[in-house]
Amino acid sequence: MLLEEALSSGTSSSSSSTSSGNKSPSPPLPPSDAALALLSFLRDELPAGGISAEKRFINLFSLIVDRAFGELNRPQPPSATAKSSSSPGTVTSPGGSTYSSPASSPSSNKLASTYTTTTTTSSSGQDKLYQHADGGWLSLLNTPKATGASSTSTTSLHHSQKTQSLDNDPIVKLLRAPKQSSNNNNDSYSQQQPTLLNALSAESIHRPQIKFKFPLGGLSPFFKELIQDWKMCYLQEVEIQNSAASMAARGGAGRGGAFGASTAATTTATTIEGMVGKENATKILYHLLLNGPNEQVELKTYFQSGGGSGNNVLQQKNMNQLSSPRAAFITPMKQQQQQMNTPRTTTTTNANNNEPNLELTMLEYYLLIFLRFPLANQEWEVQLQDQLRRMRYGAATTAYGQRVYSHLMSSYMKYYLPHGVYHRPDGGVGVGTTQRFEGGAPLDRTAELFLRLVIEFWVEGQVSPPTFAEGIQRYRNGRSAFLSTSSSSASSSSSSSLNPTLRDSLELTQPLKTTYVSPPSQIQIGVLNLVRHLVSDVTVRNMVKTASMSCQRRQTQEREGRVPTTIDDDATAKISWCLPLAMTTIQPSIFNYIRLGFTCGSIHDRRSIFHRALEAWLVWVEPWNYVMKRRAVVVTGNNNNGSSSSATHRAGEFLRNAAATVSSHRVEYYPAYVKPKPTSPSTYSSQWEAYVVANLNLYTVPLAIFLKRARELDFSSTNEYPRSLALVQRVLRVFSKQVVTVLNSVLNRRADALSASLATMHRDNLKAFCPPSSWTLADCQLDATNLLEEVFSQYQKRKNEMDIFDRIDARLNALFSGKIGSDETALQSLLSQVRYLMHLPQDYQVLPEEPKSSRGWGSFLGLGSRKDGSSLVENLLVPERDASGRLTDKGRAQIYSGMRKCNPIDVHFVGDPLLARVKTYEIPVLVELTVQASNYLNQKLGLVSEADVAEGQTADEDTLSKHYHEMERYQKTLFRINLRFLADSRNIIFAYVLWWLFRTIGGFFSS
User: Fold this and answer.
1) How far apart, in whole angstroms, are the C-alpha atoms of residue 998 and residue 988?
2) In this structure, is the dihedral angle defined by the CA atoms of residues 890, 891, 892 and 897, taken in order, positive or negative?
3) pLDDT above 50 (res 162)
4) SS3 letters for 142-205?
5) How far apart are CA 801 and CA 797, in angstroms?
6) Which of 28, 537, 862, 1006 is placed for a possible disulfide with 978 were both Cys, Cβ 3.0 to 4.6 Å?
């Protein structure tokens, strides 16, 4: 079987069976066998096969993409709709257009007809337009088996998914990034383990004229602002070219456009500027137009003809001409025609504002498909729901395709964004995972494209937050409208009330035009892994340490008066930027990703974007939690780790690492993340001072948003209180006294000249998303104190409402966990952290201390004894209330004037405890029976009159008034019987245990 037929028969079998009834389709190769066959082709035939093998690889490329990701569902052209009556869901397009490089083959047309089936959508499947069809390797749920493998049960299959190493998987071997060596070149094949990325990199370098087409409609449903930015850039380019042509016609020295210019790095900021806040999209366009605007002819024609405007960026219903990605090979002759900029050859494709196509090299096409796949794959969402359902039964496992995708993404990050070299304390260089750079060297062209595609597709996503200028303008408009409708005294307030502070960061982050769309779960995990990869780079540690030493040396000189305190007065005061290029590039996007996640994510769902953004933020702002560890380097041949047991492998690894620490074994250093406990102190040291300054707004703005939203956490529930408190502790522990001192020195303009210069570079890097420099941490005092009041009041309220069983349970849990008194200690530690963070007075108390009310045994026994209000001492800070607990006129006046405030602890139950709603620990049937029995006994014994009972049952009034009347009748009753405690399931269990013990002990003595 030909490799082309084996790869294409997976999806074309259905269409071929309908078109040729006499010939049965060939069975498809299993994914593992197909990957092994492709690996054999890349290892043996492609390096030695010459031009014919290279041409075959180009033909195979589109098949590999379809098998790995699933075919792309494209809109069905009108001409194919009438011809596809037998198979309405598919249409067979012709093969690739003829190309002169590398060479033509007599059998090219025959092979093209074998694999050119593309999946299209009908009018009823518009929701799946430009989505990948099911069946791709990365959409598989279970690990594929090779031919001849024995069938296993579902349980053993899930077990093999956990134990088998993905490094030995044939699909991973085919698609992963090549392992770098010290003299690695992207244009050479790896002789040991050739991968698809090796071949694509070589073809993109040696055959740049071979390109594949990707429809712009595949980006428009997800990234409308990207297309709007590209249109603006193209229109500016056309305007520049027209002005240059007019100057040349008048005899002037006309200058060409910015795209494709040799000084693109300088003309980017001065000539072509896209949408504000979409600088990353503009950089991607510059990459695609390296040789000038005519490199993307269809895109240029489409934008010049008015396409790309409005919400419907692409008029898909008017498409009369479609092409598959295989029909996108551009011949050298066609490329020369495009460079001549002839209108007749460039406007025929999109004369009616049809869908344009991006012309990409093989490597660019693969990277775009790979990074876009989580957004255009519906199978993962189905698998995620199934995974959540299985988690309830303790049998949840991650799908095979998702695990492979994460593994591949990790290898791509290591390949395109490599870590620096770790310098050991003894002066030597640690052997790491083959690094290419020791410092913040610039990224190459492919690595930069990879990073910017990740930023555009994953980090910035479908919705961008408003710039701070837009957010401040919206804030002022809202406040101005409020002041114009208020009283005259409010209208005379100063204009400072219209200026937002750090406390208003949540309001300034709300999206303006579109509704926020949370990225898929796989993208959220991918962004978190990307942040971990960038922060764990040892280059960050080296660069920050050097900058911190310079800042501290400058601080000493300024204190001694040896240098000026401003950098403008000292020309020798210079400092270099202390973050690598990759972190610098992604810093504004990560800042917006965290802000949007905190603002729009659900705080109650542990798998929402809020908590994933929180994890990414905590990793970013605490890089000192990464420590360098070492392990033994094992040089092996073609061994099969998958055949050995995992226990033996772990034991051997442990012994090698132990031996490496006491012998001369070759070791390598790797970053390991030490996750801190919520109550553990910060491990920050002074060598990270420059890092805090260089990420100033990533510390302050997300903190302000978190403090405002943290009040939504559930502190009232017994089960959720520890989790909510731990979340607040994890955030506040970051802001130790040393970190707060560095932040305040910069925010309050007391920093040294070099630190102020770093802060200025940081603000310049954020561009339009940089907040005002006048914001300080003290602006969030109100939100911080409100959060403390919420935590303390809910804790005190839960503590007061605990009965004897809850108190015993709490004491036993604290005793066995070794955390006696831990709640009070944690709250006091939280209070001290907020005091220093927000500069609160040292004698600040969250809640006023109140005398404890006695809990009599009558309440425990269910005899219904009421609380006597005369036993409580009146608190001076509590507003005046009547006997029923309602505010009096004087109490309302006290609150209105600010002399008194309500305390959440004062909120008590309104009504009769006997008639309260059914609790979660009560049995509803028994509640009804015990209430009826209690009323019957109270009436027979004369404890409650029949008139009171009848009045409570027939009163025609609203619910609140009814409860108040019930409470008044309850307070007038001195004593009554309440049997409702018999409906408490805890009491029933306790009584059963006592009965069982009595019966067991009695039977023991009787025998």
Assistant:
1) 15
2) positive
3) no
4) CCCCCCCCCCCCHHHHHHHHHHCCHHHCHHHHHHCCCCCCCCCCCCCCCCCCCCHHHHHHHHHH
5) 6
6) 862
CB 898 within 8 A of CB 892: no
**Where is 627: in which H helix or E strand?**
strand 626-632
Nearest-10 crossing angle of helices 609-621, 521-535: 0
Q: Is the peptide bond before 442 cis (omega within 30 degrees of 0)?
A: no
Q: How many CA atoms lie within 13 A of 517 on its CB side?
A: 15
Looking at residue 904, its pLDDT comes to: 63
pTM above 0.85, yes or no: no
Dump the DSSP string for 218-250.
GTTTT-HHHHHHHHHHHHHHHHHHHHHHHHHHT
Distance, in Å, from the CA atom of 468 to the CA atom of 734, rounded to the nearest integer, reads 26
Separation CA 99–CA 607 (nearest Å)? 49
Average pLDDT over residues 200-221: 89
In 346-472, which ranges are E strands? 357-360
* Beta strand pairing call for 74-75 and 117-121: parallel
- CB count within 10 Å of CB 799 equals 14
| C-alpha distances out from residue 528 to 172, 458, 535, Å | 22, 11, 11
Q: Is 143 exposed, middle or buried (0-12, 13-18, 19+ CB in 10 A)?
A: buried
The span from the CA of 435 to the CA of 446, in Å, is: 17
Is residue 68 a contact partner of residue 366, using CB atoms and an 8 Å limit?
Answer: no
Torsion, CA 793, CA 795, CA 798, CA 802, rounded to 10: -130
The bridge status of strand 74-75 relative to strand 357-360 is unpaired
Share of the chain above pLDDT 90, in %: 30
User: Rounded to 5 degrees, what angle do the CA atoms 405, 411, 414 make?
Assistant: 140
Task: Find the mean pLDDT for residues 955-978.
Answer: 75
pLDDT tens-digit readout, 648-659: 555 556 555 555
Q: Which two tokens stand for residue 653?
A: 């690894």
The letter for the amino acid at 56 is R
DSSP per residue over 645-672, as a string?
-HHHHHHHHHHHHHHHHHS---EEEEEE
Direct distance between the N- and C-terminal alpha carbons of the chain, in angstroms, rounded to an integer? 84
In whole angstroms, how far apart are CA 661 and each of 404, 424, 635, 654, 670?
A: 33, 14, 17, 11, 15
Q: List pLDDT tens digits, range 851-867.
A: 444 444 444 444 444 44
Residue 932, classified by CB atoms within 10 Å of its CB into exposed (0-12), middle (13-18) or buried (19+), is: exposed
Query: In this prediction, what percent of the chain has a pLDDT beyond 70?
Result: 67
262/768 Cα distance (integer angstroms): 27
- Burial of residue 645 (number of CB atoms within 10 Å: 0-12, 13-18, 19+): exposed
CA–CA separation, 690 and 578 (whole Å): 7
Residues whose CB falls within 8 Å of the CB of residue 760, separated by 6 or more in sequence, listed in order: none
Query: What is each CA distance from 781 to 303, 503, 506, 776, 898, in whole angstroms?
Result: 50, 8, 15, 10, 18
HEC sequence for 294-308:
HHHHHHHHHHHCCCC
Number of Cβ atoms within 10 Å of the Cβ of 811: 11
Q: Which residues of 405-431 are buried (b: 16+ CB within 10 A; e: fewer)?
A: bbbbbbbbbbbbbbbbbbbeeeeeebb
- Share the mean pLDDT of the chain: 75
Calpha distance 331→351 (Å, rounded): 22
The token pair that represents 519 in the structure block: 């990225």
**C-alpha to C-alpha distance for 820 and 810, rounded to whole angstroms:** 9
Residues shown for the chain: 1007
Characterise 508 by phi-psi region: left (phi > 0), alpha (psi -120 to 50), beta (else). Answer: alpha
Specify the higher pLDDT residue, 163 or 754.
754
Reading the block at residue 348, the tokens are 């025929």
Residue type, 201: S
Instruction: Give CA–CA dist 229/232, Å, rounded.
Output: 5
State the Cα angle at 721 between 718 and 725, rounded to 5°: 160
